[in-house]
Amino acid sequence: MVLLSKFEEAVIINAERFEISTNQYPGAIHPEGYKFLKQFRLDPFPRWTFDVNGIEIEKSILMVYGENSVVCRWKLLDQSKISNLKSEISDSKIELELKPLVAFRDFHHLRHEDAAFNGEYQTEDNLVSIAPYHEMPTLYFAHNATAVEGQGEWYSQFEYLIEQERGFDFSEDLFQPCSLRFDLSDEAAVIASTEPQDVSFAAVFETAETRRRSNLIKAAGAGDELRASLVLASDQFIVTRHAGKTVIAGYPWFSDWGRDTMIALPGLTLATNRPGMAKSILTEFSRHISDGMLPNRFPDAGETPEYNTVDATLWFFEAIRAYVEKTDDYDFVRKVLYDKLVDIIDWHIRGTRYQIHVDTDGLLCAGEPGVQLTWMDAKIGDWVVTPRTGKAVEIQALWYNALRIVADLAQRFGDAENNSEYSEMADIASNSFNGQFWNETDGCLFDVLNGDAKDGSIRPNQIFAVSLAHTMLEHGRARKVVDKVEADLLTPVGLRSLSPHDPAYAPIYIGSPLQRDGSYHQGTVWGWLIGPFVDAYLRTHETGATSRVAQFIDGFRIHLSDAASGQISEIFDGDAPHKPRGCPAQAWSVAELLRIIERHK
Q1: What is the pLDDT of residue 337?
Q2: Which of 55, 454, 463, 580 is the most buried (most CB within 10 A)?
Q3: What does the H/E/C string look like for 531-559?
């Protein structure tokens, strides 16, 4: 939910008012506070420095770890300015006025003026509270203001240009219940929270969070600025679900997805030396296995999990493999996960939801009309943009990898029967894959086989047949796959989802929801794919690989300050300059970049 949208901020110097906020309204920018903005930085929190007639004011924002609380602080950077003013004017003072603008809405929607909105607020002992709707939390403002004045006004028609670009509702009304006035001879502080807070703890919260972040960087052994930034970015996606941990796929509009969580787990937790987090995530998701499948998505409002995925379950195996490679904690896998992995394989052999089953050739078949099961899952109404029904190339790579992982575990745990069965199944799958998927014309792999139909689209999915721990390809073919992907799909910020030589290629991800979803996997660049590409590149290139990998990473180094500061975006345009699009902070984008840096440093 979005409860507090923003503050309108004004600095008052000897009764002269300077508005330092900036808003977009129809046909106008008002106020023009950006003209006073001198600097923005992450240090380690967002900090803005405003220069108002030679007086510098710093604003900072931080979120309290584990709480629905945000600490906002404003301070003069040179308190002597007040003394200088008072020497000129005896009763001189510098004040700050804040007007909270509240929305109280679901994060997928915008607020519009509503007669049912209860704008009354309560105030007591440096605490203001407002609860416009019974079904939403109360919002508390702990503050050290010298005065609170009632207002009760609607601010109308804020415009959000990115929402307009995306074809969504882009005009919002926000309610201002009151104003807060502060004397800037001392620091001004507000803690906005869903619980009552004590404003005197504002500095304590900042000190504690600074220390916590420093400890994360130290524990991860992140010795340079890039890795330190990625470690802090990774921490923002790991949240609590029931008694365990899970991963938010992206901000601001994704919840926790099974596929994204399993792909992101090695980078977010293992590359940062937080194996306990990984263990908690694996345990939590193992509780939700149903008919041999991991959930694709936990809906925002907590409804029944959705299981419309073929690959999330297979990524679960790879996440477990990465976990034991890092920790050697086979005892946990044997006691908690092994029987579930065996059950998953059994379900896939006999068949589970959405026609997911092992075919007579040992390959994994999946899909039915109107359903999108792979990570290329865009759907508009009844139109599945990339259905990929049948035998998708990365699903075969993941299936083979899963069989080899469980066979290895079976051998370690003295389960000779399953070791023999899964090893034989893997051999059969490998023979069938090499016989059916090689595209001799293009020197790479077909993307999907469905009966006699062979989809020769040049997509990044084939890279997983080289990058995963267990591969079915011999070195010569693997090298050709990597070279083809590099030639057609590689960009400075990841891999294109479709070759630009394909007639269906969409160079720009922009427009209405229909236009954007139609291009989501039709050329759009995905940052997370740099991970498997680097793994595959290093596996197939014996000389000069290290310097090339450094080049692959450099584009992301620049991007850290290009969209959401300190974060990696979900997607980018297929054509240069590869403008960032989609979620400005995406878990698997951060995770895969961090993983390959740590693995191949």
Answers
A1: 98
A2: 463
A3: HHHHHHHHHHCCCCHHHHHHHHHHHHHHH
